Amino acid sequence: MKKPRKTIADYDPEVLRLFDDLVHGRIERRDFLARASRCATGGLTAVAILESLAPNYALAEQVAKDDPRISTSYETIDSPQGYGTIKGLLAKPANAEGKLPAVLVVHENRGLNPYVEDVARRLAVAGFLAYAPDALTSLGGYPGNDDEGRAMQRKLDPEKITEDMIAAAKWLDVHPEGSGKVGVVGFCFGGGMANTLAVRIPDVIDAAVPFYGRQPDPADVPKIQAPLLIQNAGLDERILAGAPAFEKALKEAGVEYTAHVYEGTSHGFHNDTTPRYDEEAAELAWKRTIDFFRKHLG
After folding, report:
1. Residue 50: its pLDDT value, please?
2. In this predicted model, what pLDDT tens digit does every residue of 34-69 receive, in sequence order?
3. Is there a domain that residue 125 lies in?
4. pTM of the model
5. What is the CATH number of the domain that holds 192?
6. 3-state secondary structure string, 55-72?
7. What percent of the chain has pLDDT over 70?
8. Does residue 3 fall inside a structural domain?
9. 15-27 as b/e, with b when 16 or more CB fall inside 10 Å?
């Protein structure tokens, strides 16, 4: 009999807060284990708790790699202002007719893992030209596990990573199969990058969907020209703390935006490989994302 998937209801809220601190580099693994041990019950150790919170990428394939509806390839592009080149997964509908609206998919703070590759394939099924670059390209690419990926990404220059993502968006903007309309969707680190790209290259980004991403400086908000669809988790105190100032700046600048907060969900609720996944919220947020891109990208 298949074991039921764990959810955030199976964890002490303090454990979830500690885990968020761990994955975002605010505490070390040993600190998590020491503090989580105080919350351990039912014979579970802190190590077992941590292992249960780790992603299970066997769950990440909503769209199979060989799905006949899509075509995929790994493409390496030039990034002269970043790390020289960046490699990523390009996914598109099979046998598409005409030019396609494009979407840049930006991963979390751990490189291009299987979950984010699957997000790109989901966009291709929905009719988009999707490119998911790997910020870890200069270090050899996503290493196969998130712990190493996080450690690798922390070694990189944030400005050079941003330039790599700018290069990827500009590449999509002039892609021969693209329509010249470019959106960006990102998760966690990628959500913050979606906001950053809307600020940095307003002439390229036509729509942005940040999932639980860090907000830009309010002083930079008037540079944004693209409409935003902001997706946040109701239990994500860290990101929600910056939401009021961001939305105030958006209103004052006349930027079109819609903000959703999914009550009872944790940071990372769209990632279907971890217990923080919330199926109902993730499916609703994804439907809203696809509808938003169809409206603004064509």
Report:
1. 85
2. 888 887 766 678 888 888 888 888 777 899 999 999
3. yes
4. 0.94
5. 3.40.50.1820
6. CCHHHCCCCCCCCCCEEE
7. 98
8. no
9. bbbbbbbbbeeeb
Over residues 161-181, mean pLDDT: 98
Pairing of strands 129-133, 84-93: antiparallel
Sign of CA pseudo-dihedral 18, 23, 28, 30: positive
For residue 104, the one-letter residue type is L
Axis-axis angle for helices 13-23, 46-53 (nearest 10): 70
What three-state secondary structure class fits 85?
strand
Q: Are residues 238 and 98 in the same domain?
A: yes
Query: CB–CB of 258/230 below 8 Å?
Result: yes
Are residue 78 and residue 200 in the same domain, yes or no?
Answer: yes
Residue 261 lies in a domain: yes
Q: Is 68 exposed, middle or buried (0-12, 13-18, 19+ CB in 10 A)?
A: exposed
3-state secondary structure of 260: strand
Q: Please, what's the b/e burial string for 218-237 (b: 16 or more CB within 10 A of its CB; e: otherwise)? A: bebbeebbbbbbbbbbbbbe
Q: What is the mean pLDDT of residues 118-141?
A: 98
**Could you identify the residue written with the tokens 């892609």?**
175
Confidence of residue 3 (pLDDT cuts 50, 70, 90): low
DSSP letter, residue 217:
P
Tokens 């009719």 sit on residue? 127
Dihedrals phi, psi of 150, to nearest 5 degrees: -65, -45
278 and 137 in a common domain:
yes
| Range of the structural domain that residue 175 is part of | 58-297
With left for phi above 0 and alpha for psi between -120 and 50, is residue 154 left, alpha or beta?
alpha
